Amino acid sequence: MAKSKPRPGDGIPDLVESLLAELGEDPHRQGLKATPERVSRALRQLTDGYGVRPEDVISDAVFDQDYDEMVVVKDIPFYSLCEHHMLPFFGMCQVGYLPRGKVVGLSKIPRLVGVFAHRLQLQERMTKEIAEALNGTLTPKGVGVVVEARHLCMEMRGVEKPGGQLITSCMLGTFRKDPRTRAEFLDLVRRP
What we know:
This protein has about 190 residues and is of the alpha+beta class. It contains 8 helices and 7 strands, in the order αααββββαβαβαβαα. The protein folds into 2 domains: about 10-45, no CATH class; about 55-190, GTP cyclohydrolase I, C-terminal domain/NADPH-dependent 7-cyano-7-deazaguanine reductase, N-terminal domain (GTP Cyclohydrolase I, domain 2). The chain is elongated.
């Protein structure tokens, strides 16, 4: 994703300055003077997936290829913000598909993960969105996505239990219907 710059007329810095004051801080003290602009740039970067159509990320790198074995891209790191508290959740994404005469350029799958991670998210929805976007663009025989993440909204607030992970999956086509295909995918993504 591209580095975000403050937008002309960006209202986020004023909102952050008000928020700092509401929290009991002096937004004009030395250490906080530039914070509203920094927060604005950070939030724009962390949510720049809203301006990207997933099919546009993949479509220019779809290639005809007579290959019908499983393709897996493992350990794709991602960072996102939960939509409930706007706190980070982060982890690894595993993506696999069974081609039907078409493959996608390797770098496009991590980019696709980034498009959905760079939105306010629920991990469950993000997992499904990644699978459906790949399925809709490639029309493969099947798609599998597994996401494992730590959620700071659980670790830093509320229950305050560090270290737990949420694991979500979405299986489409043969990954859903054929237990052997699903088992092969899960075995491949579990390997060190």
